[in-house]
């Protein structure tokens, strides 16, 4: 005789509980096993789910409020949702976290802080494993300074092959990007895709393609000296006026801030080409052309004269004259 | 004949046994100057005085020299070539007492060594102190002569030149030697002008010559008086006379033991001197002129004179600082440079000619008026006349204009040149002071900047300026401020550090020494950079002088042959002519460079 079928409700010991169906379709219950309490329990589950969904929507709606746009702390959540709902929020929070829609962090007061991630961003994280998320978090922490590959490896304890795969994955999803630094052109730095590299990495406006642009700076310096000499009948120009003239003349391919212009003009001051000459009525410093001073130091060939073997060196002057050791006299007689 | 065999024992030697090692460039330069002008024995004695670093008596000096400069061990080969008598004479000659005394006298004569008399345990002791600054000034004598030429007349130039060459002279000797020099120069010029003509026709007769000679002596005396009154010549301070403190147990009598008695130089305006018999070498005409009322007060017969180097330096400084003021503020204040020069000349006159001991060197506009150049005085006078013609109420007297200009100058701070120390009711009542130190410091700073610019480039000079204004900086911050790539900045910093223009300051972040954990800050020390710049100037000047001396010594035969040669014999070969020309040009370049460096050294050290 074949064994009798066990009732559907009975479950084997140790076996994992079956997943409950999400839909509101009632579970078929055999008449022999159906009872009013079971029916009542089923109806109750469907209602709970509705309440959960409502709670979830309320929770998500909180983040659209102006005050919680950047996130909400645990205490603020308690205030808004009420102490009773906090316990019910736990599964919702877990669900959202697993979908990468919610990011948790800690505030300075050691309190949990929740930030909602937009759906399109969340899809980028979809399918990423723990290692990849860890790498992403490490890179995110570095901010706009970026982080070297070696440092990522040290912090995540991943081997290089795994890391390279993760980098490719993250780059493909446009979550991170590689950048180079002017201080170490051969090394690779990673940072978040939407961040602008800091000035320490790019070098600022004075660098182009990671190379210091000497010609550009030289052109700007010459233009600044020209402005100082010609504008306002050489009685003095301000940084604002110089900046304005630069924009007008389109000397620079990129926009220079007032700080950049000040930095440039300051180098002219250090070179004794330009000097400060008081302030105008607005309190702005005026710059004038520096007057030439006779320094009484006409000697130029210091490098030769100060060397220890000066006495044995042939001396070559700029006009081609060379002072060498005495040649033997040619006897004509 | 090759060069090497012509002088078998010669070697280019430019130091004595006691030349300072490791060398202080300034001491080495002074030592080299002494050797160049007075020879190796005088250099040895000077180095001996430096070696101990304190005033020495003659006995101590001789002992030091005999101990430190051990006799050279001559090889048998040398004794065979020279002969035993010559070899032993050479061996002992340099350390005998007479040459050391003679060398010491030369140094005293040229004021490179000063003598002080002390009483130690009841005995008189003469101590000799070396003045290295004075020794270093020997190559600058042509500059003083050039200044005398610009500021005074030809007779004054000849007088200054004679006193510089001789070191110090009595009045009569100074005048007679100057007259001799001028007559020789005139005769040489006349010979050159009358070349080829029949000499007998143009030769003046004896009476005419005597008349010219007398007139020349008078003009020279007149120039002498002017120089003395202006402070360019000074009386040598009288050395204490031994007989004034006669003591039977008196200590060493310096230059008399077992030597024929030498004339002691006396100074002072003692009327009893007039009664002293005329010495054989004294010119009676000059002596009688000195007795005249015109010169009796200023130029006494037995006074010993020397050139007042300090006055020349102050006069040169007045021109240099005047030029600085003219360049900085000349476009804002008319004749600013001339006014500052006039003020400095007035103060120098007060200090050296009037011997004012007043430490406060202030002046008013009226006192400097006569020192203003004539064109400036005329210009100010024209302005006054124009103001009078236009009937302006403002006081446009020359003094008032000068005072107002000085007041305006006092408002400028980069650099500060004039301070108004007392404000009067009217501008002409105000008193002013020239900020000489500040202006000299400014000039020294600019010179140091120029030196670094020439040696290390524009970026090096900029980095030093940034550090001197901003204090301590890390290399990355410095690169940002100076607008240079960080890598280039580090390279330049290390070169500047090696040249000792900048200093490195390290901050450890832990108790353990850990270079990777340290903070490295760069900085500039104002005094140190100035000292190093001055040392570099001295080193460069010394090297150039040595190179020039070496070149001259090596090429001595060549030069002599070229000088003695006629048009046909030597240097006929084109290559030889070209080489000789290049050689002479090269020597000229070296000499010109020495003059440039000496000028720089004058500002850095002697102003």
UniProtKB/TrEMBL annotation, chain A:
Listed transmembrane segments: none
Location of the protein in the cell: Nucleus
Domain of life: Eukaryota
Gene Ontology biological process terms, A to Z: transcription by RNA polymerase III
Compositionally biased tracts (Low complexity): 8-22
Region (Disordered): 1-22
Entry annotated with the keyword Nucleus: yes
tRNA processing is among the record's keywords: no
Entry-linked Pfam families: RNA_pol_Rpc34 (PF05158)
Keywords: DNA-directed RNA polymerase, Nucleus, Transcription
Gene Ontology CC terms, in alphabetical order: cytoplasm; nucleoplasm; RNA polymerase III complex
Similarity comment text for this entry: Belongs to the eukaryotic RPC34/RPC39 RNA polymerase subunit family.
Protein name per UniProt: III subunit RPC6
Organism whose genome encodes this protein: Seminavis robusta
Automatic annotation (TrEMBL), chain B:
Protein keywords: DNA-directed RNA polymerase, Nucleus, Transcription
One GO-annotated biological process of the protein: DNA-templated transcription
Region (Disordered): 185-212, 235-275
Subcellular location: Nucleus
Gene Ontology MF term list: single-stranded DNA binding
UniProt KW Transport keyword: no
InterPro entries from the UniProt entry: POLR3C_WHD, RNA_pol_III_Rpc82_C, RPC3, WH-like_DNA-bd_sf, WH_DNA-bd_sf
Record-level GO cellular component terms: RNA polymerase III complex
Ranges where the DNA-directed RNA polymerase III subunit RPC3 winged-helix domain occurs: 450-524
Regions of compositional bias (Acidic residues) in chain numbering: 192-203, 244-254
RNA polymerase III Rpc82 C -terminal domain mapped to chain residues: 223-411
Subunit structure: Component of the RNA polymerase III (Pol III) complex consisting of 17 subunits.
Family under the similarity heading: Belongs to the eukaryotic RPC3/POLR3C RNA polymerase subunit family.
Role description: DNA-dependent RNA polymerase catalyzes the transcription of DNA into RNA using the four ribonucleoside triphosphates as substrates. Specific core component of RNA polymerase III which synthesizes small RNAs, such as 5S rRNA and tRNAs.
Protein name: DNA-directed RNA polymerase III subunit RPC3
